[in-house]
Design a protein that fits this description.
Layout (H helix, E strand, L loop, with lengths): L15 H7 L9 E8 L6 E2 L7 E4 L3 H11 L3 E7 L16 H12 L4 E6 L12 E3 L2 E3 H17 L4 E4 L6 H11 L8 E6 L6 H7 L19 H12 L4 E5 L5 H11 L3 E5 L1 H12 L5 H15 L3 E4 L2 H14 L3
Helix pairs in contact: 4-5, 7-8, 8-10
Bound molecules: ligand PBG.
Ligand PBG binds next to helix 6.
Pfam family, one: ALAD
Organism: Alkalicoccobacillus murimartini
Catalytic activity: 2 5-aminolevulinate = porphobilinogen + 2 H2O + H(+)
Length: about 325
C-alpha cells in the first residue's frame, strides 16, 4: 500500500512536555487588573448578590482585600466608587475627599508598590445615573468634559497611578490629558475605555455600583454591538488624543475586536472581562454545571490569544490561585 500523504499535527501533542514546549500563549499574574468597589456608607463589606465573591468595601475594611491581592502578586487594582451624595453633575466624583480619592490615599500609603487605577466616570455619582451631564433628555457632551477632567485631576492628586476614563464622551481623552498636563501630572498615563459597547453584560455591575441610568439607556454614547469599523475609529481618536492604553469592553463577545484593535494600534491593550461574563460563569459553577477553574482559565487564555496584553477581571484572585496550584501540581 502506498503511504498516504497527510499532516501529522498530533506529533506536537503527544506528551505534556511537548505540549508545553509549543504552547503559544500563557497567562501570567502580571496580566491581571483586579476591580475593587469602595463605598462611603456603612462599616462592613457587602457581597454583590449577582456577583458571588465580589464585595463593596468600606474604607475601614478595604485594606483586607488589598492585602490579599498584594500577597497573590497581582500588580494592579482599579477602583470604582460608591458615594453617599449624588447630584445632577456628579460633584462627589471630583471632590478631593471623594470616595475614590480617599481609597486611593489609603491604599497607596499602605502599598506604595501596587498600581492604583482610578475609573473616571460620572454615572455612579450623578442622580440620573448617566455618564455625563444632562440637557433635556440628552447627555451633553462638551460640558461633561470639564467635569471629567476635574475628576481625573483630583484622582491623580490623591495618588492614582493611572487614569481610566470610561464615559465615552467624544474628546474625553484630549481634555483629560490636557487637564492632567496642566496640573503637573504629565507622567500619569491614560488607560482609555476606547471601545465600549452598549452591552447587556454590564447588568451585575450596575447592581454593584448603583449606576443604572434612571431614564433612557447609554446607546447615544456607548457603541452599537454590531459595529467593528466604528471600533477602529474610536480607538484611533483616542490614540490621537494621547491614550497610553486602550480598553475593549466587554471581552468575550468581542474577541474579534480585541484582535483588530491590537493589530492596528501598537499600544498595550486591555480586555475588560465584565460583570455579566463573570456572573454567568459563577451561576453555572454554583449549579455544578461547569468546571469553574477550567472554564475561567480557558476564557482568560482566549482573551490573551486574541491579543490582550492585560485583563481586567473579577476572576483575577481565583485565577492566580489556580495558576499557582497548577505549577505546584505540575499540571499541564
Ligand atoms: C461605568 C462603568 C460600567 C462598567 C464599568 N464602568 C457600567 C456601564 O457603563 O453601564 C461595567 C463593568 C462591568 O460590567 O463589569 N461607566
Amino acid at each position: 500500500m502506498t503511504k498516504m500523504e497527510f499532516d501529522r499535527h498530533r506529533r506536537l501533542r503527544q506528551s505534556a512536555s511537548i505540549r508545553k514546549m509549543v504552547r503559544e500563549t500563557k497567562l501570567d499574574q502580571d496580566d491581571f487588573i483586579y476591580p475593587i468597589f469602595v463605598k462611603e456608607a456603612g462599616s462592613e463589606k457587602t457581597e454583590v448578590s449577582s456577583m458571588p465573591g465580589v464585595y463593596q468595601w468600606p474604607l475601614t475594611e478595604v485594606l483586607q482585600e488589598v492585602e490579599e491581592i498584594v500577597n497573590l502578586g497581582i500588580p494592579s487594582v482599579i477602583l470604582f466608587g460608591l458615594p453617599i451624595e449624588k447630584d445632577a453633575v456628579g460633584s462627589s466624583a471630583f471632590h478631593d475627599h471623594g470616595i475614590v480619592q480617599e481609597a486611593t490615599r489609603i491604599i497607596k500609603e499602605a502599598y506604595p508598590e501596587l498600581t492604583v487605577i482610578a475609573d473616571t466616570c460620572l454615572c455612579q455619582f450623578t442622580d440620573h445615573g448617566h455618564c455625563g451631564v444632562i440637557k433635556g433628555n440628552d447627555i451633553d457632551n462638551d460640558p461633561s468634559l470639564q467635569i471629567l477632567a476635574q475628576t481625573a485631576i483630583s484622582q491623580a492628586k490623591a495618588g492614582a497611578d493611572i487614569i481610566a476614563p470610561s464615559n465615552m464622551m467624544d474628546g474625553f481623552v484630549a481634555v483629560i490629558r490636557q487637564g492632567l498636563d496642566e496640573a503637573g501630572f504629565e507622567h500619569v498615563p491614560v488607560m482609555a475605555y476606547s471601545v465600549k459597547y452598549a452591552s447587556a453584560f454590564y447588568g451585575p455591575f450596575r447592581d454593584a455600583a448603583h449606576g443604572a441610568p434612571s431614564f433612557g439607556d447609554r446607546k447615544t454614547y456607548q457603541m452599537d454591538p454590531a459595529n467593528r469599523e466604528e471600533a477602529l475609529r474610536e480607538a484611533q481618536s483616542d490614540l490621537n488624543e494621547g491614550a497610553d492604553f486602550l480598553i475593549v469592553k466587554p471581552a468575550l463577545s468581542y474577541l474579534d475586536i480585541i484582535r483588530e484593535v491590537k493589530d492596528f494600534s501598537g499600544v498595550p491593550l486591555v480586555a475588560y472581562n465584565v460583570s455579566g461574563e463573570y456572573a454567568m460563569v459563577k451561576a453555572a459553577a454554583l449549579n455544578g454545571w461547569i468546571n469553574e477553574r477550567e472554564v475561567v482559565l480557558e476564557k482568560l487564555l482566549s482573551m490573551k490569544r486574541a491579543g490582550a496584553d492585560l485583563i481586567l477581571t473579577y476572576h483575577a484572585k481565583d485565577a492566580v490561585k489556580w495558576m499557582k496550584q497548577s505549577i505546584e501540581k505540575g499540571d499541564q
